[in-house]
Amino acid sequence: MTSLSPPCREWGHRFRREAAALAGVFDGVVAIEHVGSTSVPGLAARPIVDVLVGLAGDEPTAGELQALRELGYGRARLRDGRLYVCKGRPRTVTVHFARWGSARWWRLVDFREVLRRDADARRRYAALKKRARGAGTGSYAEAKRRFIEGELKRLALERRRPYIGSRTLQATEVKSSGSNRTYELQDHCRTTVSLYTPGATTR
């Protein structure tokens, strides 16, 4: 049975600690986002924080993967053809990678926004997870996948649009190198941190 935990503020704190550490690892990082159920206030979840690293390229370099190991992340693994790394025994953090602005990037970020903004979608998703958690890991994941696809189709979120513009963000410079400056963006709910470097390739 998949174990679900009540909402916990520590999940947001954990994400911010990991995001700060991860920001120093990648040369081509465009953004770092908290995704998955632990990023949605009020939603029960497995106590594993999902971190999405948006890269200028398609995947981390060998040197970056080595730096992740030094931060305590286990060896890189492939799941459904996608690279990810994990931390903790039992697992407490999973880091996913995607090219910033790709379909995968927006799928994960957009679904998070659906759950944060739509109380009915959040309620239905919570009920589905509660029903499916006893069906085994594979069935649980498949039930969630079908729900996610249905919500994205229903709300036409496959069409790209800037979602950050609808939130109040505070920018603080945290790192500079030559003409490039990296900023920390934090929304008014203080639930997500984005890191970006103006001028980085985002296509």
Summarize the SSE layout with pairings.
Elements: H1 9-23, E1 29-35, E2 49-55, H2 62-70, E3 77-79, E4 82-87, E5 93-99, H3 103-117, H4 119-132, H5 137-154, E6 169-177, E7 180-187, E8 193-196
Parallel strand pairs: 2-5
Antiparallel strand pairs: 1-2, 3-4, 4-5, 6-7, 7-8
Tell me what the CATH architecture of the domain at 9-109 and 168-196 is.
Answer: 2-Layer Sandwich
- Find the structural class using helix and strand composition: alpha+beta
The total of helices stands at 5
Average pLDDT confidence is 79
The CATH homologous superfamily of the domain at 9-109 and 168-196 is named Beta Polymerase, domain 2
Dominant shape: globular
Q: What is the level 1 CATH name of the domain at 9-109 and 168-196?
A: Alpha Beta
> Cα-atom Rg, whole angstroms?
17 Å
Q: Secondary-structure element order, as H and E?
A: HEEHEEEHHHEEE
Helix residue percentage: 25-40%
Q: Biggest sheet, in brief?
A: 5 strands, mixed
Indicate the proportion of strand residues: 25-35%
Placed side by side, the strands forming the largest sheet appear as: 1-2-5-4-3
What's the β-strand tally?
8
| CATH fold-type name of the domain at 9-109 and 168-196 | Beta Polymerase, domain 2
Poorly predicted sequence stretches spanning 5 or more consecutive residues: 160-174, 178-203
Describe this structure in words.
The chain has 203 residues and is α+β, with helices and mostly antiparallel strands. The protein has a domain at 9-109 and 168-196: Beta Polymerase, domain 2 (2-Layer Sandwich). It is built from five helices and eight strands. The protein has helices at 9-23, 62-70, 103-117, 119-132, 137-154, and strands spanning 29-35, 49-55, 77-79, 82-87, 93-99, 169-177, 180-187, 193-196. The strands form two sheets. A five-stranded mixed sheet has the order 1-2-5-4-3, with helices on both faces. The chain has a three-stranded antiparallel sheet with strand order 6-7-8, with helices on one face. Strand 6 and strand 7 form a beta hairpin. The radius of gyration is 17 Å and the shape is globular. It starts with 8 loop residues before the first helix and ends in a 7-residue tail after the last strand. The model is unreliable at 160-174 and 178-203 (pLDDT under 50).
